[in-house]
Amino acid sequence: MSGTGSVGTLRTLNSFAIDIMSIRNAEDLFWYVARNVVGRLNFVDCVIYEADPATEELVQVAALGDKNPYGRTILNPLRIPFGEGITGRTARTGEAVVIEDLLSNQNYIPDTQPARSEICVPLISDGRVLGVIDSEHPEAGAFGPAELEVLSTIAAMTSAKLDLLAETERSEQRYRDLVQSHAQLSAETETRKALEAQLFEARKLEAIGRLTGGFAHGFNNLLTVIAGNLDLVGEHRVPPEVGVFLGDARAAADRGANLIRDMMAFSQQMRLVPQPTDLNALIAETWDRNQKAFGCDVEMAFEAGTWTVAVDPSATEIALVNLMMNARDAMEDRGTIRIETGNLVCDDVARRTRGLDLAPGRYVRLSVTDEGMGIPPKTLQRIFDPFFTTKVVGQGTGLGLSMVQGFVKQSGGSIIARSGPMGGATFDVYFPAIDPDVNESLT
């Protein structure tokens, strides 16, 4: 062959040594070697194979000449088992071979265009065969020691680059694994912190609930005696001035009874009587009975076909009135309260996006939104704490929202408070919907 061992060969190899540093992946490397190195050294054709250790096969990855009519696209790439044919034997032995006359070689597998001579050089790294560079020629005796030396040099440079690319990929993978591990560790740390905070909150509320429930039971017994005695006194004629004091005592007893009810609700010890309930109808009826007492506008938006829920109607009405009063007070009697309902299927996506602490299933959402100044983040974190209130002394016990939360949880639901940057606050209450089959049996 002409050109090998010439100044042109040295220039081609020097260019390869420079360009090889900027090649970023094995595919580009294989095609560069076939076209820009072997192709410029007057080899009439070149096929490069990559070894697949899993199947012990050589897979065609690049080609030059008539065997490459589609650019960098190889249709039906050749797959040669290790040990089969001249190329496969090179992959098996790891030794280069030059065949001067293929007609006399029993290992030759004729191609679509039979050749007369062939040179085959392995790509080797640490004793492992990475691939093979193969070239055929239509004339016998086309390859000799000079071509073998040139192709062996190209193979050595290619193998070294493949090693470097593999190490680069391993380093990048180790970095990706490290980043993933760090992210996973960070997520686990955040999750653990959140769980610890939830556990602390649950234990705190449990302790307060037990204390509150015990206190409510004891106070209710005392209040029953007081109210009974007041009723006995009221059955006798008393002077008018005594009647005034008696009325005040009865009003105080009634307020005490309401306070006990709220405390029992917070401690989730209310005696609830769940019934299949149309939440839309209950809201409308509650507003009809209480609209004169609120003194503000209410806008209602009910989703059609809202599912039936199993709740205690009286306790639900009390909770709704508490939320509406809270909304009215937040607006200082100005603005509009918006009440909405809607169905929700709670799944992993809904729990993650809405921050719901609910079991998977069907729920009906009741939302009460005000147009007030909104709730600061620090206050939002404590909004359901018992006895926490932002009202002035004498205007609130701090049990309204905690009572609502206790009732909702006892009913198998959840409540979430949220406030936007533009003001206003929304309380979303989720009640579990009745299964249609169960609903039919209840009705």
Automatic annotation (TrEMBL):
Where do the Histidine kinase domain residues begin and end?
A: 214-435
Swiss-Prot/TrEMBL catalytic activity? ATP + protein L-histidine = ADP + protein N-phospho-L-histidine
Whether ATP-binding counts among this entry's keywords is yes
Instruction: Quote any Pfam family the record assigns.
Output: HATPase_c
Q: Which UniProt keywords apply?
A: ATP-binding, Kinase, Nucleotide-binding, Phosphoprotein, Transferase, Two-component regulatory system
As recorded in UniProt, its EC number(s) are: 2.7.13.3
**Key word DNA-binding present in the record?**
no
Q: Show the InterPro entries listed in the entry.
A: GAF, GAF-like_dom_sf, HATPase_C_sf, HATPase_dom, His_kinase_dom, HisK_dim/P_dom, HisK_dim/P_sf, Sig_transdc_His_kin-like_C
What SMART domains would the database entry show? GAF, HATPase_c, HisKA
Q: Which GO terms describe its molecular function?
A: ATP binding; phosphorelay sensor kinase activity
Question: Kind of enzyme, top EC level?
Answer: transferase
Q: Which PANTHER family match?
A: C4-DICARBOXYLATE TRANSPORT SENSOR PROTEIN DCTB, SENSOR HISTIDINE KINASE
* Protein name (record): histidine kinase
Q: Which organism is it from?
A: Jannaschia helgolandensis
